[in-house]
UniProtKB/TrEMBL annotation, chains A, B:
Name of the encoding gene: gap
Protein name, per record: Glyceraldehyde-3-phosphate dehydrogenase
Record-linked Pfam families: DapB_N (PF01113), Gp_dh_C (PF02800)
Location in or out of the cell: Cytoplasm
An annotated Gene Ontology molecular function: NAD binding
Residues given in the record as NAD(+) binding sites: T11, I12, G108, R166, Q304
Source organism per UniProt: Halomicrobium mukohataei (strain ATCC 700874 / DSM 12286 / JCM 9738 / NCIMB 13541)
Binding positions for D-glyceraldehyde 3-phosphate per the UniProt entry: S137, C138, N139, H192, A193
GO biological process: glycolytic process; lysine biosynthetic process via diaminopimelate
CC terms in the record's Gene Ontology section: cytoplasm
Superkingdom per UniProt: Archaea
Amino acid sequence: MLRVGINGFGTIGKRVADAVRAQPDMTVAGVAKRTPDYEAEIARDRGYSLFAAAETTPFTAAGIDVAGQVRQLVAASDVVVDATPAGVGERNRALYEELETPAIYQGGEDASVAPVSFNARANYDEAVGADAVRVVSCNTTGLSRVLAPLEERYGIEKVRATLVRRGGDPSQTGRGPINDTLPDPVSIPSHHAPDVKTVFPELSIDTMGMKVPATLMHTHAINLTLRATPTAEDVRDLLTAEGRLLVIPERLGIDGAGKLKEYTRDAGRPRGDVWENCIWAESLTVEPLSDGRADCYLFQAIHQEADVVPENVDAIRAIAGLADGPESVERTNEALGIGCGLAGIEPDTTAPARDAASDD
Amino acid sequence: MLRVGINGFGTIGKRVADAVRAQPDMTVAGVAKRTPDYEAEIARDRGYSLFAAAETTPFTAAGIDVAGQVRQLVAASDVVVDATPAGVGERNRALYEELETPAIYQGGEDASVAPVSFNARANYDEAVGADAVRVVSCNTTGLSRVLAPLEERYGIEKVRATLVRRGGDPSQTGRGPINDTLPDPVSIPSHHAPDVKTVFPELSIDTMGMKVPATLMHTHAINLTLRATPTAEDVRDLLTAEGRLLVIPERLGIDGAGKLKEYTRDAGRPRGDVWENCIWAESLTVEPLSDGRADCYLFQAIHQEADVVPENVDAIRAIAGLADGPESVERTNEALGIGCGLAGIEPDTTAPARDAASDD
């Protein structure tokens, strides 16, 4: 059993811990936190060994036992997942390197934090045996998952995407905007396009970012100029066969993130998490252009708290050399129940047959 | 003085009435309303002759004098502006035709309501002497204004625009969404692309629509593939020279609709109205493509309650044959103060000289 330490037990860290615990081939060595807040109570209630990321005194004062300092956790781990706030991961890097513990960073870090920026669907093999891996951000993960099969099947001349981002997560009560729509950043491209290129170095992509008064999910309006002229149905079948893409049929009556998350809560998903990209089937549109090219359009919703969680699990397997990509993805999906539990949006078995393991 | 009747005294009608009154060559014959609510009080306080669009009894009961029925207003008007809710204009059409009063409809009506769909910058001449004209919607007006100079100067191969629309106006308290981002419509293109084609029949354009929990303005993320490779500065200068486009310099520190509207309120604009498209200067980006083409990007904010108001005034002049396009636009702009009163975003006089009258 691979021992995985998780440094940071906030939005991502607590989800990664639960996801690691659900896997057959890894275990949670412990989690590290700075403050004895409600999430520390959750760590204790879940039975995770809790390590202090800074001082132990506040935990002792709050009556919460700690197993030691974060340094001890890193030393006792085969792999560490750094789920600290953006920029803190870079500061933790010296510790991981000193203790020679392979580290997984999150997409809030600069790409230079690790030699590989990772998406399980797009470039798993590059992370195998690396010393450090950066799992790209929620938006870049969402883009990478949908771009990979389209690039492989049709070739992509150019991507133009508008990312309408949630202002903050539900728990980030200090964030905005309220009643406004902010170009963010105002300059073009937003940082997402270069970030996608850390996964697809040759891709031509421009992104425009905005922030709106919503907390549940990001919503992407995507245009792709393809080097082929498939039908909208071809594209729908291709995407439906992908394990981490949910193509939402019209009959479900899901008009936005609210109903999507209501659906996953009803289905019993932990925290109502949506690990998959949610693509509206009706939005899949293909418009032939000249020279055998076509403009393809789609809307997708991305759950910013959850979509990188299975990617972190796969990054752990890649860095530890536990499995190849398709095998890891299959194991992660099965352990978490990705692609299951949501009636009516199972992978379409009438779609052109593809090797199940390579679908993800 | 041209006598203008205004049927409907809601968001658009009350603004059109005030704008007509501010013109040197037209007068408000009266306004018609269905209910004696707060906007009826405003009509009375402004001194407009108030006509009942339906029953007179509720007005009498509320102690508000009415000058008669809407039929009398239409008969007494040289031109009528129909500013009733979407779909009601079509039902009023028979009355205007019976009384042979030329009519201006709003963009909520189907394009078939009138022989001409109108934008002052793009196709003023088509409306001259027509029996009926439809002023296109706020979003289509905003798109038409920015597309016209770019099409004329560079040629446009294709437009791809994502329209992040406010959920409702500030007074529309029953609308949503709350805390969600809705693809709306989910299908592509949204109705905006065909609507733009009522003004630019030859244009290749796709639009994706969304709705968000904001009330102040729409925000457009626009990509245009141009048939030329100008610099971003060329495009900025071209757009800055347009009277109804405000290119917002970075130094103003305006990050969204909230600060934009705060600025116009501080400047003393009536109701804080923003009649112009507001284009973020930093967002203007040009990326050369192959074959002498270029991808141009920009963000713009559109005040849905206000941008069609000067267009209605110009449509009145066109339909009545009072002036040619550049003359009407200049008169409207001067009477309302368009392009004035906002320090630092005056038209850039260092830009390539163009005939002032033809700038709009």
